[in-house]
Design brief:
Number of helices: 6
Helix content: over 70%
Number of strands: 0
Order of helices and strands: HHHHHH
Distance between the termini: 6 Å
Strand content: under 5%
Number of domains: 1
Length: 139
């Protein structure tokens, strides 16, 4: 195994923290009570109600796979790449659902921008993992 550049571990740590924030957001979303949902605005309630179960499952794959893949990067394991690819696939499926829901409900443009940033980070993590394998930084 070749020594990784000095930026590799800090980047993987930041990526793990980013994905753990996603895990926390996912948990807070799926643990909403009917009372919590009633406190949301009408548009948010409509969006919440319009989400199909497969979208929620895709989100789980995206965030938990992203966190696990970043742990794999930190452990310098080759399996980080397919796990991060599965995470990215979950993210793409989640985005498809988000676009379907946004077409039928009023959606905050900020949410779409944030989701685009999340997608770019997911693509970047897959690229990083692939480069790490190609360069011999992980085995």
């Amino acid at each position: 195994m070749t020594a990784a550049p000095k930026w590799f571990v800090p980047t993987a740590i930041v990526a793990l923290l980013w994905n753990l924030i996603g895990c926390a957001a996912y948990l807070s979303d799926v643990m909403l009570t009917p009372e919590d949902i009633a406190k949301l605005g009408a548009a948010e309630q409509a969006m919440y109600a319009a989400r199909p179960a497969w979208s929620v499952a895709a989100t789980a794959i995206a965030v938990w796979g992203g966190a696990a893949g970043c742990v794999g990067l930190l452990m310098r394991r080759r399996w980080a790449t397919p796990v991060l690819m599965a995470s990215l696939a979950g993210l793409v499926v989640q985005d498809i659902s988000l676009m379907m829901v946004s077409a039928s409900t009023a959606m905050d443009p900020t949410a779409l921008v944030l989701q685009s940033v999340v997608l770019l980070i997911g693509v970047g993590l897959v690229a990083l993992a692939r480069k790490a394998v190609a360069q011999g930084w992980i085995a």
